[in-house]
Amino acid sequence: MNNTEKLQKIIAYSGLTSRRKAEFLINEGKVKVDGKVASLGDRASKKQNITVNGVPIVEEQKVYYLLNKPDGVITSASDDRGRVTVLDLTQIPERVFPVGRLDYNTKGTLLLTNDGDLTHKLTHPRYEVKRVYKAKLNKVLSFEELEFLNGGSVKVNGKYSIQTVTLDEKRSYVVTLSVGSYHHVKLLFENVDANVNNLTRIEYAGISHVGNLSKGQYRKLTPKEIKKLKLIANGIIK
Ligand code: URA
Q1: Helix or strand or coil: residue 227?
Q2: Nearest Cα to 210, choosing from 121, 111, 137, 120?
Q3: Is the Cβ atom of 183 under 6 angstroms away from ligand 1?
Q4: How far apart are CA 133 and CA 203, in angstroms?
Q5: What backbone phi and psi angles, to 5 degrees, belong to 74?
Q6: Mean per-residue pLDDT, 91-114
Q7: From the alpha carbon of 133, which atom of ligand 1 is closest?
Q8: DSSP H helical segments within 70-141, as ranges?
């Protein structure tokens, strides 16, 4: 059958529960596809009749939010160390999740959505989604250091990293990237022996109005913003 996906993915994308919990439900024999009890590893099409505990899954309406993430919160949906998560800050009725990660002490633009397809595309390196950060450093960079960061021989997490880095104001730099890896901006500046004291993401995938929200505040994206996000995620515009 064409257009099949892992069953746990279809259940998670419907907004019912997480992928991991869906796997658990499948293992427990609680999931049926067209009346037949499913096993873990089964694939299905969204057009088939999928039930969990006898109740058909219904695709949840997709929602898109912009959060101004404060520092001191994590971007995972839950934390085994009991730290506050970005989802603890919101009261969104749908089961949303963050699009990508920001470090505990990084602030700024963070998208929240229940649109798994869009999240996958925006966070996949193939789509080279633009992210812009403002980084306050512990020192002023020399002309040579700035030139080095804007050149083609910088490595971050073992891979060449292409970015533009421009001076914003004293010790503060704007970094534009089209991929993101673990602690990318902090490790980038380690190349020139600089520490990032303060990091804010000011733009992600063309969404850049986080400054209008106070720390921890969030709002729904406008229809225009959602349209732009989808065009970017599908590689139609950059
Ligand atoms: N780069 C970092 O170092 N941290 C972030 O949170 C995002 C990008």
Answers
A1: helix
A2: 111
A3: yes
A4: 7
A5: -100, 160
A6: 94
A7: 8
A8: 116-123
Q: Yes or no: say if 50 and 7 are a contact pair by the CB < 8 Å rule.
A: yes
DSSP 60: P
Q: How much is the CA Rg of the chain, to the nearest whole Å? A: 20
Q: Answer yes or no: 103 catalytic.
A: yes
pLDDT digits (tens, 9 = 90+) for 12-57: 888 788 888 999 999 999 999 999 999 999 999 988 999 999 999 9
Return the SS3 of 187: helix
Q: In this structure, are residues 219 and 143 in contact, taking their beta carbons and an 8 Å threshold?
A: no
Q: Is 162 helix (H, G, I), strand (E, B) or coil?
A: coil
Ligand 1 near 63 CB (within 6 A): no
Ligand 1 in reach of 30 Cβ (< 6 A): no
Q: Which of 42, 79, 103, 168 is catalytic?
A: 103
Helix, strand, coil shares, percent, the chain, to 5:
25, 30, 45
How far, in Å, CA of 189 to CA of 203, rounded? 19
**Interatomic CA distance for residues 168 and 204, integer angstroms:** 18
